[in-house]
Write a structure and sequence with these properties.
The structure is a single chain. The C terminus is likely disordered. Helix content is 81%, strand content 0%. By secondary structure, it is mainly α.
């Protein structure tokens, strides 16, 4: 009879321990091992890549900032003011020489007309001289070896006198022609000089304008590049912060299924032969306390210490029941 009671006590103790384990949500050993050894390499790799991308984005942002500062220094208000002053100076020179070239160009048509008139006079004088000389040569040729008569002598003398006058007239017209030509050439050279100065001033103006526009364009591009780098860094920083946040690096707690079977509470005996009341032993209290704590934690994989506590509590209950059976003999 006592052996039967002892076996029942041992079965009851094992049932209590198993019930406590189920209430606490203890999973089989294979499940616990699988959960505790779940792979985290992918998360670690993702975190490392995000940190590297953040560092690269930060370095790119610093480089863009450096370029922006250089562009701001190159296009500082002082340097832009210097360029604007040069542009204004060359613009003043350009306007002046353009005006002067226009003034020098105004008399050119009249001077060209004087040259043309002098050229006509010279051509006329030259043609008269040539005609008189041709007439004299004809008279002399017709005379031949014969002695000229008094009339022919007077005609020859008159032709030579007119030729000399025509040559003097031709020389005078030639001098006038050269004079007008030199004046025209000098005026044209002055016009060319001022026009060349205007072109050079215009080239300086265009060069300074292009330089100023290039500096401002570089500043605009550097500002845009820096803004883009800042945006890229903010995105990389947000990605890195998200990769290192607890929602990603820490696994979520496992909640026991709501429909899992909960063992019924063991019915305690109403009284004992010794005291008339049921008084649970310290081992039983410890087992119930441990079971309650495990059930309240909701941990999917309780530690080995908790398992050992439950086993120890079960052994204590078994020992107590055995002693009571022996004492009742």
């Amino acid at each position: 009879m006592n052996d039967i009671l002892a076996r029942r006590a041992r079965r009851a103790t094992a049932g209590i321990a198993l019930s406590a384990a189920l209430v606490a949500g203890i999973a089989p050993v294979t499940t616990i091992a699988a959960e505790t050894s779940s792979p985290t390499g992918a998360v670690a790799l993702q975190t490392e890549d995000a940190a590297t991308a953040k560092e690269r984005a930060y370095a790119a942002m610093q480089e863009a900032l450096k370029n922006l500062e250089a562009a701001k220094d190159a296009a500082s208000p002082e340097k832009l003011a210097e360029i604007d002053d040069d542009i204004a100076s060359f613009q003043e020179i350009h306007d002046m020489v353009v005006t002067e070239a226009a003034k020098r160009r105004e008399p050119l048509p009249a001077m060209q007309a004087n040259v043309d008139a002098a050229q006509a006079k010279y051509d006329e004088a030259h043609n008269r001289t040539s005609g008189l000389q041709a007439e004299l040569d004809k008279v002399l040729k017709e005379l031949g070896d014969e002695a000229p008569s008094t009339a022919i002598k007077e005609h020859i003398k008159q032709l030579r006198s007119e030729i000399m006058a025509a040559e003097r007239r031709e020389e005078s017209c030639e001098d006038d022609l050269h004079h007008y030509q030199r004046r025209l050439e000098s005026q044209e050279k002055q016009v060319q000089y001022f026009e060349s100065e205007a072109k050079e001033a215009k080239a300086h103006i265009d060069e300074d304008i292009a330089k100023r526009d290039a500096l401002l364009d570089n500043l605009k591009k550097a500002q845009t590049a820096y803004d883009d780098a800042c945006k890229a860094y903010e995105e990389a920083k947000a990605a890195a912060d998200k990769a290192t946040s607890p929602e990603i690096t820490q696994p979520a707690e496992t909640t026991p299924p709501s429909n899992s079977a909960q063992p019924a509470e063991a019915t305690q005996p109403a009284s004992s032969p010794a005291t008339g009341k049921y008084a649970p032993s310290s081992s039983t209290k410890q087992a119930n306390t441990t079971t309650g704590k495990l059930a309240n934690t909701g941990d999917a994989a309780p530690s080995a210490i908790a398992l050992a506590g439950i086993a120890a509590a079960g052994l204590g209950i078994t020992a107590t029941a055995t002693r009571r059976i022996k004492n009742s003999r």
